[in-house]
Amino acid sequence: MFFIVSITSIYSAQMYLSPTLGNLALKQAFWYFIGFVIIFIIIKINNNFFYKYAWYIYLANCVLLLGLLFVAPDINGSKCWYIIKGIGSIQPSEFMKISLILMLAKTIDSFHKKHKKPKLKDELFLLIQTSIILGIPSILTFLEPDTGAVIIYFIITLLMLFISGIRPFWYMLLGIIIIAFLSGFLFVYFFQQDLFIKVFGSSFFYRIDRIINWKMGSGMQLENSLAAIGSSYLMGHGFNNTPIYFPESGTDFIFSVFASNFGLIGSLLLVLIVLLFDLRIINIGKYTINRIDKYITVGILGIFIYQQIQNIGMTIGILPITGITLPFISYGGSSLIAYMILIGIILNINNNKNKKIGY
Prior knowledge:
70% of the residues lie in helices and 2% in strands. By secondary structure, it is mostly helical.
């Protein structure tokens, strides 16, 4: 169902996209095909392979992120993609989400195997470990810059630590640290702007400005998105009949294209499909007996739910525009392949949810 929605929406978006991009709907269908092949392979090799080599997968992705800063072309002020002739672009931050989940899950699982009744100092050591695992890709990704991916890294880590059962004390301490940091950060942003730009750079200043002032400002992208959705009424303008142009219609604002074509009823059906998809993953995680599988399921679920809420929310004006795509629907080879890998891992967890497995 995601495939059908994705192809029809991307095809409809092409009327406003540059012809030099080619037939994106056909390309998306190709990436879906590759994704299904990858799922089949993952089911054959089982998740033990990923658990065993989690460290190497994580390290390889960190090297890829580091390489972007030196060899990746500058595209719209960002160095987020490797360009490979004949294939297209590859975005390592999409695959970093997978390796981060695997690395964190293995680290937390090993911790609980070693410490049956962990003390406060044991948990502190775990938090230091996870902070290092999180911090390295976060810094590298932030420098690209890709703030949206960094936010996802943090959400993955917080959710996996929460489900691991560490003491509530650490969340209270983290809350105090975050409040103190944000207070200082916003003070410098609002009252010492020259210092802020000197430390963080003008590019980051304008990114923060865009997020903070999103409700007060007006932009053609959001205004046209709201016009397209608002004018679609119950049934929409019809397939391949997007009434108005807005940038990133095939990626960040794909929901606006679908909603304008199929109206309120079509949009509600898509949201229902998304909810059923998420509930199925929750159900798989609920009944698995392996700790490491539970951690991984929660991490994967965090990626999907955050991106779904953020993407749909920003297209209808209730959340800031952050460049987050809609999983399985927005165009993108790297993101789609990454999501299909996650689905393969989830299917293996479902197949093994009543078995004790080792690695």
